[in-house]
Amino acid sequence: MREAEVAGADEDQLRVLVEQLNSIVWMIERAEHLLLQGDVEGASAQAERSVEASKGVVLQAEQLREVASERTYFGKVFTFAMVPVAALLVTVGAHYGWKWWRRREIDRMMRMEIREVKEPKEET
Amino acid sequence: MAKLSEDMKRALTIFISATVVFSMLAYVSVTPRPREQFFQIYVLGETKMAERYYPNNNPNIPLGQGVRWHVGATNFMGSVQYVVIRAKLGNSTIRAPDDVSHTPSPAPVLLEFRRVLMNNETWEFPFIWVIKEVETGGDRVDIAVLEVNGVEIRSGRVGALKGHNFRILLELWTLDPETGILMFGWRAGVERRVAWLQIWFNATLSRLS
Fold first, then answer.
1. Do B23 and A11 lie within an 8 Å CB cutoff?
2. Residues B155-178: pLDDT tens digits?
3. pTM of the model
């Protein structure tokens, strides 16, 4: 189950397995209680049920781990595959942004007028 | 080799820089961040607050008097954990758990509470105990039978002078993933840590009327 968790299993699915594990813990406690009361048959039946249930949980945890590790793997591949795509988008954006800015600057320069500035004459 | 235009050089520089930055972002997003791993354990009084641990705030507990606490544990280990809380009965001379050597108390175990906890999950349960039987010999008072959550436990005869300074110890045990056995406390990376609590009380010979 820890492996499934490390593989990135969904929290809700993990919660379902944890609930099942807790019911198995309860079954074991019940078996111990029956044993203390002297009910060996009841205790062993309860213990067998808990063993069967725990096998089911192990199986489900394995399936969950498989699915989770596959999903995590593809997630990682997708994330890193997006790196050059994002870099390309930024490059194209920056290229045309730069061109646009240069054009704007040139246009601004073209609109400029040269005027003579009359400075006040210095008094002698 | 053909000379690259200024535009091409600029585009290439931006592309390489953006690739480096986005690669770092991608690495950070897929790498889990290290977190501090620990458990929290607590005991609350009958009002579910850190008060009124004894009936009428009197730590002298008579026979048959029910004492209600709420024990809780929270898992901050970053993973699913199997947790066991061991309740033990001690007196003033029995060794308490050792935080340095990580050894549990040798006091007799009253009851174990077990649960599988999700990360960040808090587990709280009532801990109701009653002194059912005591035995006396001179000044010494032995708790012979203690009832915890309806289960009668013959505690293994813990005694105290005049019934003073008994304590209930609560130790947190976890399943060690390396060895597959229960251990007192938990492993946080290479470190080992423990968590335990104790509450003192006196056993009086009077019986609750």
1. no
2. 667 889 999 999 999 999 999 988
3. 0.81
